[in-house]
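Issue 218. Parser rejects a valid record. Input:
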Amino acid sequence: MTPTFHSSILSICIALLAWLWAGVAPVAAQGPPDLSVEGNGGLVVPGGEVTYQIRLLNWSDALLPGAVISQTLPAGFSYIPGSTQVTVGGWPITQADPIRADGALVWGPFQLPAAGHTAHNPYGVHTFVQDLCLPDFIDFQLDQALALAGSGGYVTQLFYRITSDTAGPDPCAVYFVNAAYDRNLVPILRLQGVWNPVGFWEKPNPGPQGNYAELAAAFARYVAGLPRRNTHPLYVTIWNEPDLWVEWSGHPNAQEYGRFFVAVSNAIRRLGDPRIRILNGAVTPTNKAFIRGLMGVPGFAAAFDAWASHCYPYNHPPWYNIHRRTARYGNAVIDCYIEERDTITRYGGRTGFKFVIKETGYGLGEDLYAFEGYRRINESNRASYISSAFKDFWRTWPEVIAVTPFELGDPWSGWDWLDWVDYKVSLDPFAFSYTPHQQFHTVTALPKPRGAPVPHGFEVAFRARVARNLSPGTYASQLSGAALGATAVLTQAAPVRVVAHLERIYLPLLRANQTGGVWYLGTPPDRATAIVPADGADQAPVEQLQAGEQDGAIVPTHFLSEDSAALQTQDQAAWSVKRALDAAEPRLLALDGRSGRAYLGLSGGELAVLNLSTLKIEELVSLGADPQALAPASQTGTLYVALSSGEVVQVDAVRGKVTARTDGLYAARGIVFDPQTETVLIADAGQGEIVRFKGDLSARLAVYGLEDLPSQVDLDADGRRLYVLLPGARRVLALDADTLQPVAQAELVGGPLVEMALDVEHDRVYVLSALSPEYRAISVLRAEDLSRLALVAGSPAVPLERAAALALSPGGQLLVAEGARLYQVSPEDFRLVGQANMIYPAGLGSLEADPVSGRIVWIGPRGVWVVDSPVTGFP
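Output the parser choked on:
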């Protein structure tokens, strides 16, 4: 249809109004967005009222501010004041009457949401705006989330401080949800309670009746006040990692969380809104014992609409996964939810549900599965891995609803190794700058699933009165919409048929009752016909937890904190620190106190011999392959080195020569010299074996096969115990050092094991483990039988988030390298008794203390540093 001159002028005026209201000018180079208008009227008699519904729709991917819509009513029709209802996706936004412009009714300006698409897009990201809840910062992160995930993607965000007194949602949450919808992003809200500054989330209060009724009602009120649109679902995940002490007042309990979750789920479901989808609080990766405990709570297995998982692959590439049967350790893969699904099905009887991978990602510097041969995570392989995970795997698995890696970026969280974007924020005046990491650019460039466009927009419903003298017939209106330089006009729109009389016909209602699990038509079930079998009629029985069985909760017995009178914080200037190398990067460290030397395994397949007195390199030995583990022998100046080639070499450090070599190994990752037998014990991660060789490497003497892959080994030569770290299996083995037969083992909580330290004097084995990518803890085991004495966790003042290395000080205290901090911990009560700054963060195997000289040595990415005396840095 060709618009009239009058309608064209009106459209131009409305477009100019839209630009002025939006505060922006049209950008001709991008072209105007694709808009359309539509509407409908109805039947009415002269003198009656008719309800109009008109819509302005956006067919483009752009979010359009300042959009307006107008309608010119036919002659004889008049607007009824106070009758307007404007909605976006069915959600009311205003009831304000229109303004009048040149005889037309004009509504706006409004923000016109971007269009949707028919194809499902599982791409997403976890934003982090809860502690800087300003519209500018929210919009900025959501714009970056849209660029990263694409139209139709998902965005997870935390909102908290929900208590039994909460009357409704945080205004920040309302703004965030609307802003996500407007960008055609699906919001996933992580809803939580109160953070205690002591260092944990306060667990929910069960209330006077002990059934969480009051708090569940508050969560339901919070959700009820959140925007909902017919165009999008709203996902809410109730709590987070409830099996971890930091999330549950220090004492997580599967029964408590299970009952709380069921109560909240029931309260939200009573809202009766199918657009709301309920997710569990994801547990730490594949905590099967805790999930099994949850399945024992009545109603839990049916209380979630989809299952939330945290699947962190650490440094496993994405093709190492359960789907392909290429994963040896299913708790550290991009599809760890498969193991969780199997536990739910076995103990909860539920099948057929889908999954939201709410947290995942690769942390820079991650190297925990190097014993399997996988590379350390850097900018390049991280970008490659996460891109492949999305493109080749997650989007091809139909059970995956969404994947939202943690985290887009947060200036204050301290989890910068997981960030996709580095933010720097100034609050006075408010401003921020940002630097995207390589993975952001790579995933942003991936094509996203789209399908056909589905226009989104706003709808105006209002009533108009028809003149009593109006003749029967059909009367059309003129509609016009505008946004950012684009206009849409329809001259014969929203037709209304005026008739002389209306005859209403009432039809009987059809009812359906549910009795005995079967749907019936009619009233009495005995006279009805069954038409649909009940869902879940043949569910498997639920197996209950056995009495006394652990529920998988991660509960530390001690926390590192600064609450100690003995604490003396030393700044960097208090250390006598000297650079030892200027070229190659040190990767491994071993000390030989008897000879006063430190041995440094360097990148590029070299070994450096450092004199601890002069701090000079005495020898530089070419090894032929990258070193993987170092072990000084009892003979002064003799060293054994495991290489990436699978070989082990013997080095005369005094002369700087390789004196013996053996092959036949696949991936030697741990090595130790046994002075009583003058043999070498080697952990071969490629074969899953402990192998004993003669001291001159001329013969293989014994082999002990393992079910899992070993990494580090430590020897108590006098007690004749060999301790073996099995990082992926989360176990420590104690073997008889002579027979290589097992005498004890311990299975530890949390994720992969990081490093081990043997304290013979105190009969202790310390094991550093990754409970999750954000939290680490130290298990303290009795060396004699590997029984657990304590689990030592960090605190806000003394975090263990990036702890990577353990060592024993000359005084028998535990040294812990945490990022760029060095902590000293008392073995008696696990208090922090000293700390000092390090110049660069320490990595795995990078910290040693020399009992002879008393010096502490650590290596970083740019050199080696030596502390003249521990007394200088510690009390």
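Fixed in the parser; the record now loads. The first helix runs from residue 5 to 22.
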